[in-house]
């Protein structure tokens, strides 16, 4: 439902821009409310989860997240939309961290890796949300009614699932501090998330332009690169858990970084349609497993509580997601997009190097 809700909002951005008569620069300023809300929630997320347990935070954040989506559809001014997006980002991140904490607890009960499959479901929900948004637009359904349907569905699903959530986050009963300086392992995981999500963010925003400006495909084909990337990312997440259970965290992170690096180099060296699609497929495979695997390892940290560890690592990752696209833009302005993507490959190389410096597998794959 998190992925469905977020994709539902994203699919209606053009409609909302048209309804409020916002210019491109005005829309850019308004959209900034979402990451601001995300960042403001970070100090609260780990503390709330440690104090209340993730189950309660999931239930409360789910309802608030759905209601904030309806608020977006109700706004008739740029300022109101900014405030609604602030709330949307705030509760989206509370739900993101708390539900990942739940996933860590479920993994502990299963005694094997299943985190990537959860993230794969998020990706599928994102596809569903985008498809539903397209259907709503084609049938002239207003954003308010669209978002209202999503909110009601969210509340129903939330109510049905609340009784089945894990009550205690730390199944082992080990007492861990709420606040502490991140240890070397958490910092390493955070930097890996930063590098991988920087690549991911750049692909989200620049893949279409890469196919338009570098590959120079017909306008109707510019979305093929992004679609190929997303299909590879979603599909690989369902295979990542089995792979990780066999080879361990360090190996899967190293392989993932190598795949993303290879994909970026293929797209840069062979700027034609088919080689670039193959490259984007490899990039999607490469970034697919990194975040769920890193979140899973962070949630098992012995130095701080699960919620606090996930907050720290996801915060570093989100910084990479935010700064990746503008950095690519600055480099492209100074040179071109091929040089930008070549520079981006250094982030994937960094994933391989940082993964090799993580502690022994026995400390990460327990």
UniProtKB/TrEMBL annotation:
Give a Gene Ontology cellular component term annotated to this protein.
membrane
Gene3D superfamilies for the chain:
MFS general substrate transporter like domains
Molecular function via GO: transmembrane transporter activity
Query: Which CDD domains does the entry mention?
Result: MFS_MosC_like
Query: What subcellular locations does the record give?
Result: Membrane
Give the principal location in a single coarse category. Answer: membrane
Q: Alphabetically list the UniProt keywords.
A: Membrane, Transmembrane, Transmembrane helix
Which stretches make up the Major facilitator superfamily (MFS) profile domain? 185-366
Q: Where are the transmembrane segments?
A: 30-50, 57-75, 81-99, 120-138, 144-166, 186-204, 224-240, 277-298, 310-331, 337-356
The record describes its membrane topology as: Multi-pass membrane protein
Q: What is this protein called?
A: MFS transporter
Q: What is the scientific name of the source organism?
A: Chryseosolibacter histidini
